[in-house]
Design goal:
The protein has 167 residues and is of the alpha+beta class. It has a single domain, classed as Jelly Rolls, CATH 2.60.120. It has helices at 14-23, 33-40, 97-101, 123-132, 134-162, and strands at 44-48, 53-55, 63-69, 72-77, 83-89, 94-95, 109-112, 116-122. A hairpin with a 5-residue loop joins strand 4 (72-77) and strand 5.
């Protein structure tokens, strides 16, 4: 079952749990505690049970998720119609960065390998963050760009390692 926005619940006492989770994440190392609290104010804490699907490959992407606790399996469709696990994400990792930037469909399916807590930032809330707190939004956007760049470099290296040398 893919979780939809209406399943997300927000409680004021949750913000501190989100801040604590975000503070352990590499993507937010340039943010002060006050800035983290501002970012957390634009997020919701979302729980996913083991075996539940966060989103499906090809579905519309409109949010970015940060793993506060738990494990996620990232799966990609293969040529023979099956799905292959391409990575496992754990506390401190994020998924869906491209959904904040572009309007393209999801590039993979994500399933919880254990009970998982996620801090979720919807694209519309990210735009509000940039509009109301541009200095914080720019820091977050730069961190997302660095993360996407690292991922692209890693993927390029892995691709080269799988290719035959050119003579």
């Amino acid at each position: 079952m893919v979780r939809e926005e209406e399943d997300w619940a927000v409680a004021e006492d949750i913000r501190e749990r989100i801040v604590e989770g975000l503070s352990r994440m590499r993507i937010f190392t340039d943010l002060s505690k006050d800035e983290l609290e501002t970012v957390a104010g634009h997020m919701v804490l979302f729980e996913l049970g083991e075996g539940e699907t966060l989103f499906e490959e090809g579905s519309k992407g409109y949010y970015l998720s940060f793993v506060v606790d738990g494990l996620l399996s990232v799966r990609k469709s293969g040529g023979a119609g099956g799905r292959m696990e391409i990575t496992t994400l754990s506390s401190g990792d994020s998924i869906g960065e491209m959904a904040i930037i572009d309007d393209a469909p999801r590039s993979a399916t994500v399933v919880a390998k254990s009970d998982t807590q996620l801090a979720v930032l919807k694209r519309s809330d990210f735009h509000n963050l940039i509009g109301f707190h541009p200095h914080i939004g720019i820091k977050v956007l730069k961190a997302i760009a660095r993360l996407l760049s690292r991922n692209l470099r890693k993927t390029s290296t892995e691709l080269v390692n799988l290719m035959l040398p050119v003579m």
